[in-house]
Write a structure and sequence with these properties.
Elements: H1 5-19, H2 24-53, H3 72-81, H4 89-101
Length: about 120
Amino acid sequence: MGLTIEKLVVIGIVAALLIGPERLPRYAETLAHWTTRAREYVRSARTRVKEEMGEDFDDVDWRTLDPRQYDPRRIIREALLDDAPVPTVRAAAAGAAIAATSSTPMRTPETFTPGDAPPYDAEAT
């Protein structure tokens, strides 16, 4: 994926042939200008991020934020292996409060056997 020196030399020779010797110095100067501006932009962005994050900037492990490190299979595997969230007292109290204020009683989940017709709620469709 990365460019080697040989590939850069071939690209340079092809560019020199296509552009021609008359226009090559102007294009090289333009490329150098763009490269300088890009470096200044990256440097200023890094400085701004460092100023805004403060001392925490040095504590960040930047290698973990590299997009090449993300493996969708690993992410899904870790998400599936995570334990289900444990209900807290606050969540149980909120569920009880909702049940107490609701005009319809809460239904308990029903078990179905193969061949049974699934329930149909005419109001929900």
